[in-house]
Amino acid sequence: MRDYLCEDTIAAIGTPIGKGAIGIVRISGKGALQILSEMFRTKSGKKREKFESRKMYYGFVVDSSGEPIDEVLAVYMRAPKTFTGEDLVEIHSHGGIVVVRKILREVLKRGARLAEPGEFTMRAFIHGKIDLVQAEAINELINATSEVSAKVALKHLEGELSDRIKLLRDKLLEAKAYIEAAVDFPEEEVEIIESGEVKRRVQEVIEGIEKLLSTYRDGRLIKEGIKVAIVGRPNVGKSSLLNAILQEERAIVTEIPGTTRDVIEETVTLNGVPIRLIDTAGIRESSDVVERIGIERSIRSAEKADVVLFVVDGSSGFTQEDERIAEILKGKGNVILVVNKKDLGLKLRCSEIKSWRCVEISAKRGEGIGELSREIVEMVLLDPETLLKGDDVLITSERHKELLEKAVESLRKVIGSIEAGFESPEFLSMDIDEALSALGEIVGQVTTEDMLDIIFSRFCIGK
Ligand SMILES: Nc1nc2c(ncn2[C@@H]2O[C@H](COP(=O)(O)OP(=O)(O)OP(=O)(O)O)[C@@H](O)[C@H]2O)c(=O)[nH]1
Ligand SMILES: [Mg+2]
Question: Virtual CA dihedral for 183, 188, 193, 197, nearest 10 degrees?
Fold first, then answer.
């Protein structure tokens, strides 16, 4: 159970479990220093009376019977100038599962509790070290799979999105002050509301929020990766294309039609942008139950994808089976026709294709893959160059998007009421409060335990 009052001392392993040069156990809370003092011995085997804050100490940690567990470097950081805002201890031991776990076990025996996922970061938030957007950004940064997504997360961590939200909140508070004046001076009420000051400010906030909302599509693509589904009839070279892009033999390739039965997903970075590549079962009429399930999944993948690579075997032209797949993909604006097997000579050329973007490739020889990558990134209108350099703050979280939408909705009501000229200032004020509270929830000025639970349970233990 998470402790929102932060009364107990928490501990966890902060490094990945496995072999490594060093492993780190972190302890946060009132008991951290006491635990370190009990476990730590100097090189000559003596207990240490005093630990200065932010100083590394070399020595040993011992178990309850005084047996050494490992040679370590340990640091104590005094509250409140620490990540969590509490007393924080780190014990750096040799990496590897046995030693680090043993140290953690000893720490727990001495009164610490195993931290829940994200609990260190949650304490940082509760103690006002970071706001909620920054807390979420830490997780985003840890989970970033591409340079661009790491960069966007870092901007959030540095507070750029939080600042933007704060600015919008401040402007709304100004608008609210006008409304409150109208409540306090009823005889001037009409004049105050009609002066346009409230409306102008609310309108500006709506525009600011809408600008942020318009970045969500790019933000989501960057964070989650562009979903690219490879579909087509059997044997056209879909799995070969997956392998060519990944530059490894990930999927089984054979000359037997119907080789791929299930959906295979792999992540790769193309031009700095994360891509989730999805290889699917070849689509055809089939009486085989397993294959039919696979085909249904192929069609579903195509429906859910940001980009669909419709692969055909250019050496045999556009067949009836291809026609049927084209029928399924009709009307979708995100399809790239991939004419494969160029090395065998093509009966179908991209110059004949009007309705789709088209690229000629040889998956077997790895030809045309660069051009195809560019087409994919271009299709979703992401420009990696600008994204990496750009100063724009992008929103990447669905939670933020929903709250921003909620705020805009309330503010539109305010504008509507002012224009209709019949709402009393108290009602206007209530709608502005709703918007303020939605914006407040983004940065964590307004929170509930449930909400924190959902957010922090997505973190790993030890962060
Ligand atoms: N010459 C040539 N052969 C290719 C090319 N791409 C794929 N092939 C061959 O085509 C056959 C089928 O390739 P796969 O990649 O398994 O085709 P698939 O579309 O995944 O097939 P299913 O999984 O059955 O739907 C294999 O024998 C490949 O070696 C290419 O660019 N040129
Ligand atoms: Mg295949």
Answer: -100
